[in-house]
Amino acid sequence: MEGIKAAIFDFDGTLVDAMYVWTKVDEGFLKKRGIYVTEEYTDTIRSMYFETAAAYTKKKYGLPESVDEIMRIWLDMAHYEYANNVKAKPYAAEYVKKLKDKGVKLGIATSNNPYLLKPCLENNVMDGFFNCICYTSEVGVNKSNPDVYLYTAEKLGVRPEECVVFEDIIEGIRSARSVGMKTVGVYDSSNEPYIELIKSEADIYIEDYSQVLSNPRC
Predict the structure, then answer these.
(1) What's the chain's average pLDDT?
(2) How far is residue 161's CA from residue 12's CA, in Å, rounded to a whole number?
């Protein structure tokens, strides 16, 4: 894309096929406590950063565990999957390498946790490709706000209008666009109900990274 100096990627559902992990964690965690996952619960926590989601879950279901204990349990449940089974989206690693070779600055803006990202990046041959990894927990708001994208752009040393954001959630697409960033909507099956919205609001929409990998302008 013309004028773009940096690419900012979401992680789960955008770079890697990992949304199943959180469904598995949510279901396993709540079922053990006699609670079943609802669509309303999933929609509410989907763009929250980790601590907020834990606090919300504790309050909603009146759980005796502390927020820190809930986060630790979730992380322990998820870690094995991220370290061993979560795979990069098709052609994602190749496309990230292409951008790096072209001199594009690369960042990750995620609601996830460093404990899970590092082994997953290593296993998918993307460790070391990114100039920075930023977390919504660092800015204190979820992706309905543009703060994590602005923070990542600042860390990369570029202006918002020089960035393109790759996202699979409509909240991220909207907030990134609100501060002048270009956006690429990335297909993920977990966001099937929102695909038409993402297509209509993102600057570009892709089913997988082969579409941009083969495009000399991207």
Answers:
(1) 94
(2) 24
Site of tokens 């600057």: 203
Confidence at residue 72, expressed as pLDDT on a 0 to 100 scale: 95
C-beta of residue 34 within 8 angstroms of C-beta of residue 55: no
Task: For residue 39, give every residue at least 6 positions away whose Cβ sits within 8 Å of its Cβ, in sequence order, or none.
Answer: none
**Exposed/middle/buried for 172, CB within 10 Å: 0-12, 13-18, 19+?**
buried
Average pLDDT over residues 164-181: 97
The domain 6-17+87-213 belongs to what CATH superfamily? HAD superfamily/HAD-like (3.40.50.1000)
List, for residues 97-142, the tens digit of each pLDDT value: 999 999 999 999 998 888 999 999 999 989 899 999 999 989 988 8
Q: Using the structure block, give the residue that is written with the tokens 């606090």.
A: 55
Using CA of residue 149, residue 150, residue 154, residue 155, what is the dihedral sign?
negative
pLDDT exceeds cutoff 90 at 49 = no
β-bridge partners, 167: 185
Model-level pTM greater than 0.90?
no
